[in-house]
Each structure stands twice: as C-alpha cells, then as structure tokens.
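Researcher: I'm preparing a figure for a lab meeting and need a structural model of a single chain. I don't have an experimental structure, so a prediction will have to do for now. The sequence is pasted below. Please return the structure as tokens so I can convert it later.
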Amino acid sequence: MSDFSSRDRRLRRYWDRQADSYDRRMAVAEDRLFADTRPWLCGQAVGDVLEVAVGTGLNLAHYPHEVRLTGVEWSASMLATARRRADDLGRAVDLRQDDARALSFADERFDTVVCTFAMCGFPDERVVLAEMARVLRPGGSLLLADHVASSAWPVRVLQGLVDAVTVPLSGEHYRRRPVRLVRAMGFTVERHERFKLGVIERFAARKPGGADVRPRAAGGV
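Model: Understood. Here is the structure written out token by token.
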C-alpha cells in the first residue's frame, strides 16, 4: 500500500469503527435510494473482475458465478467482514488490503473494474480513476455507481452544506460526478442511469482500444 498521511490514518480508523454497523446503516439507503443498483452493475461484470473498495462485501452475492473475482479494501475491519460474507456465500474471491490510489496489480490485469458508492470517499477521485484505468485491459468495462451532485439545484445547495461537515469528518463528498471524468479519459459510456432527483448515478463505460471483452459465447468468458 502507498504511504499514508496522518489524515489517511485517521480516515482509515474511522472506517474501521464503522465496520460492525455499516450494513445496518446501509440497509436504509439500499431500500430507499439504491433500488437494484448492485445487481444491475455487478451483473454486467465478466472475466477477471476487480472490485475497488469492496467494503463489507455487499456486492459479492450479485456477481455472475463464472467471473474470477478480486476485491481490495483499505480498512482491515471492513475487509474482515467481507471475508466472512464470502465464506457464508461460498464465494471464491481474492480479498486483499490495498490502497485504491496505488493498486498493487500489473497494468491491464482485469477485464472489468467495479466500484459502488465509494468514489465519494476517496481524497482524489482522479487518481483513483487513473488507477482503475491502468489495471483495466483495453476494451474492458468500468462499472461505477455512487451518490452524486443532484440534478435539482435546491438539493445541490443542501449537498454543499452536508459536504462542509462530511468532507472533514469522514472524507465523504456529495457533489462529485465521476461520469464526467470517465468520459474525459476517453471511455465510451454504454449504459447510464440517474434517478432519485439525480442523486444516484450508475453507468457502464468501455475503455478505448483492444477487443471487446464481453462474453464471446454462452457459458464462457
């Protein structure tokens, strides 16, 4: 993992403390905001798959059985919960502690990279997106979902007030739009949905160059 600053260490301790209660708190957002986002996104994953910021493993049940799954997370406590969930599901997954800003994988290692509701928490989303692009094969799929700046200006104003508290406390941003950065990086956005006053956004984007890595035949990857 990359060298951590004092702020990084503080934020990691914060997420370590959230591990035991995270799933219960997320349950409300799952029901009221996220709809079918996890299966919608993870169901599109193919081949060698990397999930960045796997958290407690809430996505693990939603991946196709045939993918080869790797997950990284910087909070040891969150990762321990994800490992227990993988065992309960009987899901084969390589779970590692790693820093999304400096992923410990070779260039063009994965066919699919997934990140759900975590881009909002990275100190520099551009660095993380660059790392995702680096480890993704040409023609590979980038699958992202997050809460973003609302399409309704009164909600954006409220989000700005919330940012003033959450950014210094937990590093969580409410007014980002990663899809704009992904397009600027040359990716082609193939599927895109935005709902709940534009607060929730999910999309699938294709990295330029190379062959399309979607399944070539039924039952094979």
